[in-house]
Amino acid sequence: NILQELTGNGKGVKGDEKKFEISKEGNLYYLNDKIRKISTYDAQNQHENSPIISGKLVSSKTTTFSDPSSVDAHAYAERTYDFYKKTFNRDSYDAKSSPIKSYIHVGEKWNNAAWDGEKMLYGDGDGKTFISLAGALDVIAHELTHAVTQFTANLQYRDEPGALNESMSDIMGVMIDDNDWLIGEDVYTPNKPGDALRSMSNPKKYNQPDHYDDRYTGYQDNGGVHINSGINNKAAYLIAAGGKQSSVTVDGIGRVKTRAIYYRALTEYLTATSQFIDMRDAAIQSAKDLYGANSKEVKAVKQAYDAVGVV
Ligand SMILES: O=C(NO)[C@]12CC[C@H](CC1)C2
Ligand SMILES: [Zn+2]
Fold it and tell me: In the chain, at which end, N or C, are there fewer CB atoms within 10 A of the end residue's CB?
């Protein structure tokens, strides 16, 4: 049976008008997209580590929704769902059209967002480091890509596999969001325009390494998962945009082919314990599968991993 489409509207975290799919039960409207199976809940500031975050499905007396975090969490989850379906023909994070549940207002001024293994959690931010983290499409795509990774390569969340896990989420985050190579810029430091949490084109700008010889080998951050992701992020940037690093020149192949290579590597070749060298091999093999063994795309992948010292 074809579900009747019902369109809701509201202003997002940045004050921009958005439209999205809702449903009506009785005399209330709900953030429940029955077509994509996406629903959005208010966690009412329950702590992010509480075992079970019960939440209230966001409702409204009219088709207009007034909570900006709920508007963006819902609309951006739809955008991410559509990106994966259209770009990779993947139906939700598990490719089995599992429902996507998002919880906003998690914690107190929580400067974070997370996929907790079964649902999306968004903090409101403290208003200085972050504003509501639901307000950035690249953050939502980053988090939902953690879910995709969990159901595919399932890269362990520590050391080199963990940095690759993080990098995959950054790569898909920038691919879906817009034509920049920045992560979190829409919700990071509201009083400092023009900065970002991370840069894939210039990881060092935000204290990430861009070469394997400079990798972090300590114990913080699960063995540097948000630090060493910069190395693979730079490689992905170079494959797409081209450039020169450590006297290696890469001839870029564009964002569309780059994301196809990484999606294929993630879903066909990477495993839970893949190291950076395995990422290089998986990307080369994926490029061969997609474009041919002697293609310029394969050449670009090899050059990029040479440039970041993963050889
Ligand atoms: O990289 C992350 N999680 O693994 C972040 C940290 C701040 C943004 C929301 C979640 C990105
Ligand atoms: Zn992450």
Answer: N
